[in-house]
Amino acid sequence: MDFHNVADNLRESFRVIAASRPPGEIRELHGVSIAAAGVTFQMFNAAFLSGPVANEAELSQRIMLPALHFDVRGLEWAYWVCEDWLEPKARRRSRQVFERHGLRHSVDLPGMVAERIRPPVKPLPWIEVRRVCDAGTRDAFCAIGSVCFHVPIAWFREVFDCDSVWEGFAGYVGYVDQEPVSTTAIVMGGGAIGVYNVATIPGHQRHGYGEAVMREALADTGRRHGNERVILQSTPAGYRLYERMGFRTVTTVAVYSA
């Protein structure tokens, strides 16, 4: 596996969400993919590179195309850039090019892959894991995401408030003594299982609940689809855990927001 698997699965995760919503749009422009949910939360109105970029001038063109698309629609948006699409000449000054076009760098996320997941290095705590399938589990998924990702709950619900999104975006919620404490989401695409929304609420972190929920989500997905190859974009907090689980970094995903 390489950066293509990360880029393809990431793009597919946004396409699933965009396709589930009436105002959503999925479009292919020249070297740029757009998957926009048409929501307030700008990270879900997204553009992605879909081919190599040779130089600064070409990168500017790839920025102006989605900028026009979203400006016409009056939407705040974000550019998710798998940096291995950028040739060295384009990569060296890529951040300055994005800034010239009004896009601020938000975060760099290591894009990681694993051919298979290693066993846990120590016993994990027991936690009840439920797949998101009704209003209660959906509300719990949104509430945990709102707290852990510091996003207004209304924004999260706007993205995940419809039943159809959960047909391709599989969510899992972990419960301790009937209290929802941790989440994982799964999207199939790019020849791999994509892991998203790994989060545990404060007060229950550092107990192994996040890893336990993620492993159960992967096991359930493996039973359904028979695939062991996994991709994710790591946060700094989860990086060492993912390395222990068998992940290796193959690219960097830089996120820019307008």
Structural domains: how many = 2
**Low-confidence stretches at least 5 residues in length (pLDDT < 50)?**
none
Biggest β-sheet strands, sense, barrel: 11 strands, mixed
Query: If you consult CATH, what is the topology of the largest domain?
Result: Aminopeptidase
Total number of beta strands: 11
Helix content: 25-40%
**How far do the termini sit from each other?**
31 Å
Q: What's the short story on this structure?
A:
With 258 residues, the protein is of the alpha+beta class.
Mind explaining what this structure looks like?
The protein is α+β, with helices and mostly antiparallel strands and 258 residues long. Helix 5 (135-148) crosses helix 6 (153-160). Strands 1-2-3-4-11-5-10-9-8-7-6 form an eleven-stranded mixed sheet, sandwiched between helices. The protein contains nine helices and eleven strands. It has two domains: 3-110, no CATH class; 128-251, 3-Layer(aba) Sandwich (Aminopeptidase), CATH 3.40.630. Helix content is 38%, strand content 29%. The mean pLDDT is 95.
